[in-house]
Amino acid sequence: MPSDVPPPQVAPGWYPDPRRQFELRWWDGNLWTEHTHNYEQSPQTGSRSDWLGRTIKAVASRAGHVFTLTLLLAAVPSVLTTLAVWWAVEGVVLTFTRAPVEDIEVTGFDQGRLLPLGAAVLFSFLVSVVLGAALRRQTVAADAGRSDSWAVSLWATVQRLPRLLGTWISWALVLAVAGIVALVVISIVAVAAPILLLAIIPAVVALGCLFMIHVGLVPAAAALAPKGVGAWRQSWEAPKGRRMDFLVRSFLIWAITLGFQFFVGTSFSSLSGANGEGLDPEADVIEMTRLSFLGSNLALVVGSGLLVAIIGGFAAATRATGYGLLYKESGGAIDDALE
After folding, report:
1. Could you write out the DSSP letters of every residue in 216-247?
2. Taking Cα atoms as reference points, which of 220, 224, 236 lies closest to residue 336?
3. What digits encode the pLDDT tens for the residues 259-276?
4. Residue 151, pLDDT score
5. Rounded to 10 degrees, what is the CA torsion of 123, 306, 159, 8?
6. Rounded CA separation 39/37 (Å)
7. Is 278 helix (H, G, I), strand (E, B) or coil?
């Protein structure tokens, strides 16, 4: 940079330290920050086992705060969504033949009951955005040796809620557009020149791999980066030169946490009392009602869903922490409050 203070139009990024204390210092677009590193220090993420160990340790060390955040932010949406589903499928009968499954017919469905269900799902999404960001801030702060309470992490997250929602909405739009384009291209090629699918499929797989990496890094940057630092740019630059390593770590963290959630979900699903209750195992035509796929006891249904949601919160905290540490260790700008 030609002067100690870059002009305001200079984009946020790493530039030579004007104080000459370090080789690089982070410019947030308006001011120099305290984020520094030397070239030889930059982007080191350690071994995968060390990274996993630090991830689990950070979550375990703040288990009480993670539990509180999960209870506050996952319990209410879980209960509301369960009640909305319970009410929406009241009187619904799903009829189909046993083998092969065909002639599917749905009767007794009231479309007017979809509105509360949609509202509950939207509320659950908004709360999940807040929960994920608060968990990232809580555990990444713990990894740095800080002991921020759950309330501090939650309040900091609420203050940056517009940014978080904007990032998630833009991310969803990018994903939707990419998915639509991929489906259109594949459909056209499949009809016009099927042999070219051999070239198209690897490209789709490559895009899927990029999605696996950035599905965690984009929210991590939105939750952890200082104000004025673009989440998209940070999440793209973080794995530069190490995308294959980041891909392996992404698959690893998703496999561990989703496997755990699946195991817990299947283990506790029987608590709801559903288990195909009311079905005739010998009948050729199956009629499923709310009794069959939800159970007869609303309290058990709500309780089992709540238990799965809380345990799922710890799995989500582990995913969020794993990506947060990856983002931090690869040189991503971190909010001063988390250092």
Report:
1. HHHHHHHHHSPTTS-HHHHHHHTTTT-HHHHH
2. 224
3. 887 877 676 665 555 555
4. 92
5. -80
6. 7
7. coil
Do residues 338 and 153 touch, judged by C-beta distance below 8 A? no
User: Could you tell me if 25 and 226 are in contact, meaning their C-beta atoms sit under 8 angstroms apart?
Assistant: no
Neighbours of 25 (CB within 10 A): 20
Digit-coded pLDDT (tens) for 16-50:
777 655 567 777 777 787 666 554 444 444 677 78
Q: Is the dihedral angle over the CA atoms 330, 213, 201, 177 positive or is it negative?
A: negative
Higher pLDDT, 211 or 272: 211
* Cβ–Cβ under 8 Å, residues 217 and 238: yes
Torsions phi, psi of 86, nearest 5? -55, -45
Distance (Å, whole) CA 249 – CA 251? 5
pLDDT for position 334 = 81
Count CB neighbours of 224 within 10 A.
Answer: 27
Report pTM: 0.71
d(CA 94, CA 116): 21
DSSP annotation string for 86-119: HHHTTT-EEEEESSS----EEES--GGGHHHHHH
- The mean pLDDT value of the chain amounts to 77
Q: What is the mean pLDDT of residues 114-129?
A: 88
The DSSP secondary structure of 187-214, one letter per residue, reads HHHHHH-GGGHHHHHHHHHHHHHHHHHH
Quote the tokens at residue 55. Answer: 């991830």
Closest to 220 measured CA to CA, from 315, 299, 134: 134
Question: 286 in helix, strand or coil?
Answer: strand
pLDDT on residue 83: 86
Give 52's contacts (C-beta < 8 A, 6+ positions apart): 252, 253, 256, 322
